[in-house]
Amino acid sequence: MQEVFAQCEQGLTATREEMFELQQSLEKSHKTTQEQSAYIKTQRQQLEHHLQSIEALEKELSTCHRDRDEYSQQVQAYREHIKELTSRMASLENELVSSQEKQDDLVQVIATRESQDAWKH
Q1: pLDDT in tens for each of the 121 residues of the chain?
Q2: What's the rounded Cα separation, in Å, for the pair 121 and 117?
Q3: Distance (Å, rounded) from C-alpha 79 to C-alpha 9?
Q4: How far, in Å, are 18, 24, 55, 61, 79 from residue 35 at the CA level?
Q5: Residues 37, 26: Cα–Cα separation, whole Å
């Protein structure tokens, strides 16, 4: 009977040792799980921060594109206005040259008449 009791005692001791090892393994696994959970939480927070940064950059880029488009429209309007002014300037220069030629012709006509009038007197 003592032998059976000793065997039961040994089995119980072995079972306790196995349970102790399992409990230590479970605690170690739990600690590892907590560390991994904390790491994942930190990574998620960093990703959320990066996402917010990307969204802010996208908004800024959108604003830059809008500003660029508005500026491009203004530049195009200025170009068209400059073309109109250049065309008008060329027209005015042509009118000026024509007026100067007419003025030169009139000066010659007046000089010729004065000269003829001077001979008549």
Answers
A1: 778 777 888 888 888 889 999 999 999 999 999 999 999 999 999 999 999 999 999 999 999 999 999 999 999 999 999 999 999 999 999 999 999 999 998 989 888 888 887 777 6
A2: 7
A3: 102
A4: 25, 16, 30, 38, 64
A5: 16
